[in-house]
Amino acid sequence: MSIALDVVNLIDCLPTQIVVVDALGTIQVTNRSWRRFAVENSGDPGHLCEGVNYFDICQKAATDNVEEAIQAIEGFHDVIQEKCTQFEMIYPCHAPTTRRWFQLRFVPYGDGSLFVMTHENITKKYCAERKLRKLAYADPLTGLLNRRSILRKLSKVTGDLRPVDELCVTVIDVDHFKNINDTHGHQVGDHALRAISSRIEACLRSEDMLGRIGGEEFLAILPRSSQENGVDIAERIRQSVAMHPFHVDSTQIPLSVTLGVAHCRGKAAPNELIKSADAALYQGKRAGRNQVVPCSAKKIGAIAGTLTPAGSRKRRTNRDLASERLSEASLLKRLMSH
Asked: Domain range spanning residue 264?
């Protein structure tokens, strides 16, 4: 099947890179944007021009285990074999000094003996959408997972637990953080939270997950961790924060955190684990702060049921603080009786 001259002239006017290939992948027609892109990326006017087999180039990249090339080859064949009416994918095509993303589309043309492929630079759109996605799951201040995202992670992890699997959940609270805000201002407090989140991250393993669940509260998920492992990691976090004061200009601000660690083996309810870790955290606060308090979900679960889950506490009033002090005293007595 031949391509009319007016069609060739039409696609030459379009900014999208367009190429027409036959069922074997041999390039039949290219437009001006395609030719310009080929020269800019290879410096060779004959690169990806008429007569060159585009599928062979993709196949070579697929042989080198380029994931996008493997996906493209499979998609081309599915359209050619009429398993689907079109194929499209987004892939990275970075230049030496610029990161770029393109959208590829592959559709039949005319009687099906020819196929049109387009490559469109969607970098601006892709980056904007990625930024929006990040805003949906990331805490804007620290860059960590936000509360909703870390709780979803915990729900997924606990749901996948087998009877032999162990898991630790750690609730981390910055001690006397209100004093930092009141004394040095909220901007300094924000810098302190970013510094603390970085120190916590540095103490975690690659498989661990960390999120900010409240103003000065964090939640760490520690898969495949015995209670001893969880306490060891929590202690590393505590020491890292306590041993490195935060500096603002010439002012040194001491920092510390209190951590509650809940442990389970096998299936466990996410809320129960958080409440258990939160109960242990309260015990640490009452005992003087700057410490790690372990707690098994089985032992604390019933007691923690009376507490508000970590990260859902609103800014506290004086009445709230008085109520919390009563609750903490009651909780401590009940803990000590077990």
From this structure: 139-336
